[in-house]
Automatic annotation (TrEMBL):
<feature type="domain" description="Peptidase M20 dimerisation">
    <location>
        <begin position="199"/>
        <end position="357"/>
    </location>
</feature>
<keyword id="KW-0224">Dipeptidase</keyword>
<keyword id="KW-0378">Hydrolase</keyword>
<dbReference type="InterPro" id="IPR051458">
    <property type="entry name" value="Cyt/Met_Dipeptidase"/>
</dbReference>
<keyword id="KW-0479">Metal-binding</keyword>
<keyword id="KW-0645">Protease</keyword>
<dbReference type="GO" id="GO:0016805">
    <property type="term" value="F:dipeptidase activity"/>
</dbReference>
<protein>
    <submittedName>
        <fullName>Dipeptidase</fullName>
        <ecNumber>3.4.13.-</ecNumber>
    </submittedName>
</protein>
<dbReference type="InterPro" id="IPR002933">
    <property type="entry name" value="Peptidase_M20"/>
</dbReference>
<dbReference type="Pfam" id="PF07687">
    <property type="entry name" value="M20_dimer"/>
</dbReference>
<dbReference type="InterPro" id="IPR011650">
    <property type="entry name" value="Peptidase_M20_dimer"/>
</dbReference>
<dbReference type="Pfam" id="PF01546">
    <property type="entry name" value="Peptidase_M20"/>
</dbReference>
Length: 460
């Protein structure tokens, strides 16, 4: 019965491919950049667009839930209280598109080239959450929904989801579910589908190093007064030793060491280092000694400078010894490391290592906790079957290096099972210029979601 039901929805999605793509393009044209207030109108516009699309797709109720920041779009269709409920989470905000000059085509004018959709948000996360809207439409319009469906699509994921946390705390009953289904991660490759079983957490700080009270002539003062940029570079480079190990005292105290057996399982995922290097145009990989690339990304914490600035960066040469230097630094965290605690360790350490000829100021930004997702839940098993149907392969469980802070919150506050069924690929270049998403990923994703609903309805 349910096989038959899914088939009707699958046919519908097959027959409406062009419309699905055109609508996604309309959404991609809205520059909903949450980090930059300049786009505030557009972010609100995207929320309205999605509300309308949910209504068109067949939800019984859709609303724009205002928050202290950008709104959350909520929608639901409850067909039978006794059936399982799938809560779809996604985000309609996108990363800034800068630097624009590195894009081959404008970031908010989507185009298809070589069967890939190019636009900011094509994969992260518009292309991915929109698959759920269309999978839902296919099931709703063919009368083949087999689970209750709720949508919660937010507009502040890329800036820390602060208001979503409040929304979740205040709406526990409304958000009640049997699984939170998220497509906002990647898989190994088109030949090797995978399901994400863990995500890293995040601590993020901005540092300011101040030397003299004003910019100085670098001849008159150079060599006699510390240059804050030089000092900042020294301080940053001391944060990791020659083995790629982070030197902040206490940083590794809670890091879980995994069994060789678990590490072996992770490393079974096909990974070709030569292809990896070629794709990135690098001659060698680098990371913490004693771990493979897969482990460095999935189960080890790390620290990176995301941006660094100060002094003169205009045309030509200006001889100046700057008064200030700045950097933005992120730390990716693994299970048991707590974001606030690690941030505090950083703050203390950075102040401790500051030489007395500079002053330092550390400002924490948003962070988030890591998450581990059960590979032994009804949802995970239903997803395995869904992939098996559509890809003819059992998906491998993987650990992703990125962060979706809200996942830990769903687990903690809603006591929900979470399923990270992402269809992105590393080459999608999320957050980078020329972000893209495979047309095939979009449609195969829709089909896999439809099949998931069928299996989850029958799941034990
Ligand atoms: N979708 C990504 C997270 C991601 C990407 C997870 C690829 C796994 C694989 C998400 O939109 C994101 O960018 N998250 C931020 C964290 C947030 C607090 C800004 C991140 O990971 O940097
Ligand atoms: Mn995302
Ligand atoms: Mn992102």
């Amino acid at each position: 019965m349910s096989e038959h039901n899914s088939q009707q929805a699958l046919n519908y999605s097959q027959e409406n491919k062009d419309d699905f793509l055109n609508e996604l393009f309309d959404l991609l044209r809205i520059p909903s950049v949450s980090a930059d207030p300049k786009f505030s109108k557009d972010v609100h516009e995207a929320a309205k667009f999605i509300k309308q699309k949910l209504i068109d797709a067949g939800v019984d109720k859709a609303e724009i839930c205002e928050t202290a920041g950008y709104p959350i779009v909520y929608g639901e269709k409850i067909i039978d209280e006794n059936l399982p409920t799938v809560l779809v989470y996604g985000h309609y905000d996108v990363q800034p598109a800068d630097p624009y000059e590195l894009w081959d085509s404008p970031p908010f004018e989507p185009v298809i080239k070589n069967d890939r959709i190019y636009a900011r948000g094509a994969c992260d996360d518009k292309g991915q959450f929109y698959m759920h809207v269309k999978a839902f439409e296919a099931m709703a319009k063919t009368g083949s929904l087999q689970c209750n469906v709720k949508f919660m699509i937010e507009g502040e994921e890329e800036v820390g989801s602060n208001n979503l946390e409040i929304f979740v705390n205040e709406n526990k009953e409304k958000l009640k579910n049997d699984v939170v289904l998220i497509s906002d991660t990647s898989m190994i490759s088109m030949d090797t589908p995978s399901i994400t079983a863990g995500l890293r957490g995040l601590s993020y700080v901005e540092v300011e190093v101040t030397g003299p009270n004003r910019d100085l002539h670098s001849g008159t003062y150079g060599g006699a007064v510390a240059n804050p940029i030089n000092v900042l570079c020294d301080m940053i480079s001391s944060l990791k030793d020659e083995n790629g190990h982070i030197t902040i005292p206490g940083f590794y105290d809670k890091v879980e060491e995994y069994s060789q057996e678990y590490r072996d399982t992770l490393n079974k995922a096909p990974f070709n280092e030569e292809d990896y290097k070629k794709e990135l145009d690098i001659d060698a990989v680098f990371g913490e000694k004693g771990y493979t690339t897969i482990e460095r990304i999935g189960i080890r914490p790390t620290l990176d400078v995301n941006g660094i600035w100060g002094g003169y960066i205009g045309e030509g040469a200006k001889t100046v010894l700057p008064s200030k230097a700045h950097a933005k630094i992120s730390m990716r965290l693994v299970p048991n490391q707590e974001s606030d605690e690690i941030t505090q360790l950083f703050v203390d350490h950075f102040n401790n290592i500051a030489p007395d000829y500079v002053k330092v100021k550390v400002t924490p930004h948003h962070g988030g906790e890591s998450a581990v997702v059960s590979t032994d839940s009804p949802a995970f098993r239903a997803a395995e079957k869904a992939f098996k149907d559509g890809w003819d392969k059992k998906p491998l469980p993987t650990r992703d290096g990125g962060s979706i802070p809200i996942v830990a919150l769903f687990e903690k506050k809603l006591k929900s099972d979470v399923l990270l069924m992402g269809f992105g690929l590393d080459k999608d270049a999320i957050h980078s210029p020329n972000e893209s998403y495979g047309v095939e990923n979009f449609f195969k994703g829709i089909d896999t979601i439809i099949r998931f609903h069928g299996h989850f309805a029958k799941a034990e």
